[in-house]
Amino acid sequence: MKTIWMMGLFGALLLAGSAQADRDPEALARTWCANCHGADGNSVSPLFPRIAGQQAAYLGQQLKLFREQSRSDQAAHDYMWGVAGGLSDAEIAGVAGYFAAQTPKPNYAAGDAARPAVGKEIFLRGKGDSVPACFACHGPRAEGTEQAPRLAGQHAAYLLKQLHVFSTSQRPAAVSMQAIVHGLDEEELNSLAAYLQGL
Questions:
Q1: Which CA distances in Å does 24 have to 31, 52, 59, 143?
Q2: From CA 3, how far away is CA 189, in angstroms rounded?
Q3: What is the per-residue pLDDT across 88-102, written as a single tens digit (0 to 9) for each?
Q4: Cα dihedral sign for 8, 9, 13, 16?
Q5: Average pLDDT over residues 5-15
Q6: Is the separation of the CB atoms in 122 and 184 below 8 Å?
Q7: Segment among 5-14, 93-102, 167-176 with least mean pLDDT
Q8: Distance separating alpha carbons of residues 87 and 98, to the nearest angstrom
C-alpha cells in the first residue's frame, strides 16, 4: 500500500512540477502513462486496463473524472488521482487521442472453453428483462461507441473488478451499469469477462 501511495504522490509531483511547461501529450503518454499501460496502450498486467484503441471520448471523460476525484474506486484513488490531477483539458484530449489511435493487440488466455460461450450469449442477447444485450451500447464486437467504452481484448480480471465496482456508487458516471450488474451472478460475470478478453 505504501508503494502505491508513493506512486500516486510521485505522479502528482511530477505533473505539478511541470504544470507551467508546454507538455506534449504524446510525450506524456509515452513516458508517464506507459509505466502502467504500456507505450502503445496494450498493458501486460491485469492491474491496469488496456487502452489501445479505446474511444477517445471515453478516455477523456475518465481522465477528467480522475482529475475531479469523482471516480472513487480504489484503483482510481491509488493510481490515477495524482496522475490526472495536474493535466489540462488540452493534455487530456491529446493523451486520449494518442491512445485511441494505437492498435489493440490480441489478448487471448487459456481457460474453460464453455465459459466464453456463456459470456457471448449474454453479450449478444442479454438476460431476461433486467440485463440488455451488451452489444447495444458497446458495439457488435465490443469495439466501443460514442456512448460506451471499448471492451474487446480487455483483461478479464480488470473487467471483473470493474463490474464489481459498478455494483457500488464508486463510479457515478456509470449509473446504467449499476442496475445491470445486479442481474448477473458471479459465474455469469466471469463468463462475460472471459468472452470479452478473447475478442
A1: 11, 19, 17, 27
A2: 30
A3: 999 999 999 999 999
A4: positive
A5: 46
A6: yes
A7: 5-14
A8: 15
> How sure is the predictor about 199, in pLDDT bands with cuts at 50, 70 and 90?
very high
Report the distance separating Cα 28 and Cα 49, nearest Å.
17
Ramachandran category for residue 52: left, alpha or beta (phi over 0 → left; psi -120 to 50 → alpha): beta
Residue 108 contacts residue 198 (beta carbons within 8 Å): yes
Amino acid at 138: H
pTM exceeding 0.85: yes
Bridge partner residues of 131 (DSSP): 127
The set of residues, in sequence order, having a beta carbon less than 8 Å from that of 180 and lying 6+ positions away, is: 130, 131, 132, 166
Model confidence band, residue 172 (pLDDT cutoffs 50, 70, 90): confident
Here the cell at position 30 is 509515452
- Write out the three cell numbers for 107: 489478448
106: left (phi over 0), alpha (psi -120 to 50) or beta: beta
How crowded is the C-beta side of 46, counted as CA atoms within 13 Å? 16
Grid cell locating 24: 506534449
